Amino acid sequence: MDFRFTDDQLAIQAVARDFARRRIAPIAAELDAKGEFPLETMREMGQLGLMGIEVPHEYGGAGMDPVAYVLAMIEIAAADAAHATVMSVNNSLFCNGILKHGTEAQKQQYVRAIAQGEAIGAYALTEPQSGSDASNMHTRATRNADGDWVINGKKSWITSGSVARYIVLFAITTPGIGAKGVSAFIIDTQRPGFHAGKVEPKLGIRASATCEIELHDYVCPKEDLLGPEGKGFSIAMGVLDAGRIGIASQAVGIARAAYEASLQWARARKAFGQPIGSFQLIQGKIADMKCRLDAALLLTLRAAWAKAEAELGGGRFGTEASVAKLTASEAAMWITHQAVQIHGGMGYSKELPLERYFRDAKITEIYEGTSEIQRIVIARNETGLR
């Protein structure tokens, strides 16, 4: 792995950092308080190439690599985790899934619009009765006389579900055979039969418009089946490997923001006539925060590098993605906790963003595979046992 970044990677990092500090950071607290989706800034991010970083130029994207994506994601997440969540879904789950498994027509029609910021994409796997047990879904798709698919069911915890134009959705097409009976579809939310349900009142990432969606006799044209029939579950799991790199990057960004705020506070805040950063207990916290932050960053970059190598040689990067996601998410939760403690009462106040970092960090241990699931994935891949 080469630790030197290319000019292109540094350029997209600089673009993301400038946009995050200039456009996102000033509005992040207000969006969090209102739970308001940042449609305007998401469109601007698309125009800057941030919504399709790994999408080839011919499909409207920036044509960059996974490392560039990680660098940009960290900058956006350091300003606001909700923006980073939407960015991650659009890049990792929506565009990546269609690029890997879609037809040429699907790539042109659906990927381009998302990559350029003209529309928002979403990913619908989870259902009310199924979280980590993702194959236990009830949403059904059956063929009609024309060969199109009629879909009925409910999905929950869908990021951008109330504002998305297109959604990659998974449904049972052959009941009774478990994961082998799942297929993937591309849903146009403007077609009859699609309904966005209640928006979830979340602890963190409150501006990301997470909601339930329902489909009632929704007719999905046969051309919008994504990949072969019955291969939906393997598509979902493969896409989640890429998604976990995005969430690891998000966690690193949140953790970095909390760490940098703590450094400034430790230098400026005085107690007993001296900066609190001169106290050994605070120094110990700072040292441990730095170690965990650097470990999370390096493991996330390793996962991105492994993804790039896998795309060139047909290998796999699932273990590296799970290691990065597990390490970074738990580091973010620990670092933000310590940051609140270092700030004392002000860390608990909404006058500073520390409490928002703390709330936002928690979800990185849950979505796109809980920490418990990551440990199972890593152990099974290492031992070869199921």
UniProtKB/TrEMBL annotation:
Its cofactor is FAD. InterPro entries: Acyl-CoA_DH_CS, Acyl-CoA_Oxase/DH_mid-dom, Acyl-CoA_Oxase/DH_mid-dom_sf, AcylCo_DH-like_C, AcylCo_DH/oxidase_C, AcylCoA_DH/ox_N, AcylCoA_DH/ox_N_sf, AcylCoA_DH/oxidase_NM_dom_sf. Residues 230-381 form the Acyl-CoA dehydrogenase/oxidase C-terminal domain. Residues 122-217 form the Acyl-CoA oxidase/dehydrogenase middle domain. Pfam families: Acyl-CoA_dh_1, Acyl-CoA_dh_M, Acyl-CoA_dh_N. It catalyses: 3-sulfinopropanoyl-CoA + H2O = propanoyl-CoA + sulfite + H(+). Transmembrane segments: none annotated. PANTHER family: ACYL-COA DEHYDROGENASE, ISOVALERYL-COA DEHYDROGENASE, MITOCHONDRIAL-RELATED. This is 3-sulfinopropanoyl-CoA desulfinase. It comes from Aerosticca soli.
